[in-house]
Amino acid sequence: MKSKEKGLIFDIQSFSVHDGPGCRTNVFFVGCPLRCKWCANPESFGNKRHVMFSANTCKYSSGCTACRNACPRGGLDFTEEGKPIMNWAVCKACETFECIATCANGSLKMCGKEYTVEELMKILKRDFSNWGSEGGVTFTGGEPLGHHEFLLEVLKECKRSQIHTAIETSSYIDTPTYLKVMSYINFAFTDVKNMDREKHKEGTGVYNDLILHNISTLKKSGWQGRLVLRQPTIAGYNDSDENALKLIEFMKENDLYEINLLKFHRLGETKWNQLGLKYAYSTGGTMTDERMAELQSLYLDHNIACYIGDKTPF
Ligand code: SF4
Ligand code: SF4
Q: Which of 25, 137, 195, 212 is deepest in the core (most CB within 10 A)?
């Protein structure tokens, strides 16, 4: 019987080699319960389709006016030079997106497309021959667990087809749902952004209690997968020895011995602008290579394998 579940996905990328063992297909889900101030994929915020405007590719300076009369709701304003500006207060509620079809340059793009289980499995099976013996699919986003009903159906199909499954998750969801989904996952990266609950809330919008509880419960459940903790490492936010030592203590208590530290970058900044959102890290947060190496040594000194950037061995 065909599943009725649908998942809202904003990108599917084949041939990834950094998000799990072997060559993989990455599936990016729309929607996230966290609001990390440094997020590199802010197009995953919200839980519905929306438009993205790329000022960099817009051809207004060459005289393009194609979108000028496209919006029936006043969603597009124009500067004196003719450059379009999204009126986000209007565009966030849009359901019809008339403006997108008028732009031949792809400067106005839809973010998010609904897939059925069958449609997504067709794409994964198409990529099957690219993966080699170790590869598979990685569910990421946004937050894949936000689509857990759909994801569970896809995961069951993957199991039937012997497809290796990985997830990149915040682990921020009720514990029974978390355990149910994770029972079908072979490999997981899960973030612990700060061990201090107030700082975690300040940086991400939520407390870390549920995340730590879920990771702990998963590890004690007899789950057979491999779990690597991950931390985007940001100067002045979570780069202190104190934070690392608390995390080391938590890891040892829970039989966890691998962490991947990601050096802070500003790759998401343009997308924040395209979405009409204010980016909090235009300045600050920058990590030096020396400090990353010091933190790595601290973990290694406590017998925790610590990988920097894309160096996680699979
Ligand atoms: S149609 Fe596209 S390229 Fe032309 S002005 Fe509008 S957004 Fe820019
Ligand atoms: S997204 Fe909708 S409201 Fe905004 S400019 Fe396009 S058509 Fe208008």
A: 137
